[in-house]
Amino acid sequence: MEAAGGPGPLGDAGRAGGPDEQITLRGPAELADCLPYLLGYHPSDSVVLVALHGERGRFGGRVKLGIPGSPAEWEPTARQLAECLIETSRRRDGRPDGIVLFLCREPGAGQTGRDVMQWLRPFAQRLRTACGTLDVPVFEALCISGGRFWSYCCPDERCCPAEGAALVTPGTSVLAAAVTYAGVGLRGSQKQLEARLEPIPEPVSGGQRRALDDTGADLVRGMLIGGKERREIGDDTIALAKMLMDRLAAAERITSPPSADAADDRLIGDDEAAFVILGLQDRETRDRAAAWMEGPDAEPALRLWRALARRCVGPYIEHAAAPLTLAGWVAWSTGDEPAARIALAAALRSDAEYVFALLLHQACNEGVEPEAIRKWLRRAGAEARDRADTDAGAADEAPGAGAPDSAEGPGGPARPRVRTVRPAGGRPAGRETAAGPGKQRRPAGTRGRAAGGGGRSGGRTEDALGDA
């Protein structure tokens, strides 16, 4: 469920621009037109409840959830949504004076929008009843489907005919002009945003799955051994991730999201992706990666986390919780709350008990400023660098110290060392390999599926943000 304590991109009372500029919405048509601007994207297959405050119906908090497929789930879902919105609103803005609800679903094969509206009517009634039971009336209930909208509350055929009324053409309303002037843009549809995070399809994913199998056979063992092995894997993961970020940042910029994602995918080798995905299952390593949250690092980091989430295929889908959470964190840290909510929701679908995602999701929903988390990560990063400097100094004083882990290449800076760890049982460790653009050699070692839960971090037994 997505819950939000604030009014969203549109602002209070549909406010756009300065404090004296307010947009007054009149009637169901303008309410239906405003929904994408409240969320920052066009929702799909969703129920959305928005709190209203005061005599003028100022927009407040909102909750959003996918529409349950079974009518048997509608009654408990309605109660949960009503309680969640009213309690969240009470803590932030005070108890709401009313609620507006939206049911958004596109027609299926052989269906019309009116068919969808009629099928969802009992759900709308249960939502209205659940809110009324808590003494908060539903002022309007709209169904949006197939480019039209219907009101479950308005009996006036002039504004809400039985065949539905056409939605305003996107971008042509006064509201659209006002929010565009205020710099509030839409990021496409919910499905388009979710598609950027979904696993790559078969048969393309076959090579990535093999790379995860091969890398995980040794890497997860080293993470479980702990100590020096775990620290070295973490260092190699961070170094390789930073190199991939630099590679993405240097690439030609592409404005179309699908084309941009495809180009990013081509720049990352299967073995490179596998190493970083598995390395991020360690909590400390993931928290170090979360420090790329601002400044010039944020944009390539977000691209990398999205690309890695798409590489979590087959039995490794749960491993996507780490890169998805990082993607949500960077999006939230840089002010893109709609993208953050979608990424964090995807992380929780991947692993419902992934603590880092749970904490960030709750903080985002309750309107916590991300700067509090940024401060913690900056402090943790500084402490990690101090420890690394201390370790490096000790290594320099040790006999035989000074052999570099990477060499200066003829065309630029040194590339990080990427290697497999020595497995249990004394089998020789894998070869060291250089991480080139999509040309990294697969580490030597036996093939086998990574020990999924064993090396993962941030899940059901850990505190995600350090020990806080």
UniProtKB/TrEMBL annotation:
Region named Disordered: 1-23, 385-468
Start-end of Basic and acidic residues biased regions: 459-468
Residue ranges, compositional bias (Low complexity): 391-408
Name this protein carries in UniProt: DUF4192 domain-containing protein
Source organism per UniProt: Streptomyces tsukubensis (strain DSM 42081 / NBRC 108919 / NRRL 18488 / 9993)
InterPro entries assigned: DUF4192 (IPR025447)
Lineage of the species this protein comes from: Bacteria, Bacillati, Actinomycetota, Actinomycetes, Kitasatosporales
Residues spanning the membrane: none
Start-end of Gly residues biased regions: 1-17
